[in-house]
């Protein structure tokens, strides 16, 4: 499908450029402009390029026909040349044909049949070349175009300058320009005829079937998506069906060529992502942080702190399984600590207790003199070891008791926490400090918002992205190595 997309886009480009390049497809003429560098100058070069009869094939698609007025004019010139060759310049039929050519020239100059094709500049070039040929200065506007044509198509001028030479000039310099003129048919809507849809229809059918099939596959792979959402999953493929702005098909074409690995756009995609994130990263971070602080300030100003302290702001808590997850988590952590963690680190705990107990005894008055007596040092060590073991055992047993299920103890602790909260609430409200507390909290948040919300520059964001990219590469290399 990537090659079919490439072929369709090439056809679209050809259609879009056909009218501007029709002169080339018609005559194959190419002109390289000359240039001048100081005292040196290089003249322009004209040459023909072999090409297939493209205009014969594509003119009917665009509704193009040779303009009848310019074709009649060129045919009249051919007829004049044949008459001169048979009867000479001074003959009566030649004179009549020259009169007809002067009339046709005046009609072309006045009527401008080149306007419909947007080639008025071509008519201007014909007029300038004709005035220069007969000696009227086109550069300074001396002499009208009609006067130039009257002089050129006269027996006296052709006899004096030589009719072979002048007709050769016309064939080489005037006829190629006049032959490029054309007219286009108009449809019932008043627009130019354009049958490009005939060439584009097979591609539209092909891409349409492929689009429907891919949409069906996406919808089957993701049942949560509706059919319309599955179609928008590859929104850029819709450009294949637009009858206007066909140049937008470059978007799905680029995607297809990248997916087919005919071109590599990973670097461009990565750079675009970096630029997008770097552009919005600073503003997005600040908006999120400032909005969070503003919500906290609004909550405090609304008096939610007073409601919470007074126990009036509690919301109905939805219990899914009739289990106090917080208490269970705390009990699980305590049980894990008592039965698994503490036995493993008991030597370290006893060493720490022994060190602190010995240090405290050494600071006691007379301890050093007492340990200097025979047998007292050993007794002191045994006593210290016994105290350390007993102290650890007491602490262990005290903690172990909390792991046992005791509804009475849990009720006492729950009542203790509730009474503590109520005591704090009542004392704070009784001392008229709640308003001051709210004001201080709001001011503190405002200071945080002003002083501690750092503005990330674009360079900072790019540095973060570079660090992220390096971590991703290390991760990919590590995954590949494994």
Can you walk through the features of this model?
The protein has 482 residues and is mostly helical. Among the domains are: 11-61, no CATH class; 64-184, no CATH class; 326-470, no CATH class. The protein contains 20 helices and six strands. It has helices spanning 2-18, 22-27, 54-62, 68-87, 92-111, 120-134, 145-152, 155-161, 163-179, 196-221, 227-232, 250-259, 266-301, 304-310, 325-362, 367-371, 376-403, 407-430, 434-452, 458-481, and strands at residues 29-32, 35-37, 40-42, 45-48, 64-66, 182-184. The strands form three sheets. Strands 1-4 form a two-stranded antiparallel ribbon. The chain has a two-stranded antiparallel sheet with strand order 2-3. The protein has a two-stranded antiparallel ribbon with strand order 5-6. A hairpin with a 2-residue loop joins β2 (35-37) and β3 (40-42). α8 (155-161) crosses α9 and α13 (266-301) packs antiparallel against α19. The two termini are 36 Å apart. The mean pLDDT is 81.
Distance between the termini: 36 Å
Q: Compute the average pLDDT.
A: 81
Shape: rod-shaped
Helix-and-strand structural type: mainly alpha
Count of distinct strands: 6
> SSE order, as H and E?
HHEEEEHEHHHHHHEHHHHHHHHHHH
Give the low-confidence spans. none
What is the percentage of strand-forming residues?
A: under 5%
Strand arrangement within the widest β-sheet reads: 1-4
Helical content band = over 70%
The major beta sheet can be summarized as:
2 strands, antiparallel
Note the total helix count. Answer: 20
Integer-rounded radius of gyration: 48 Å
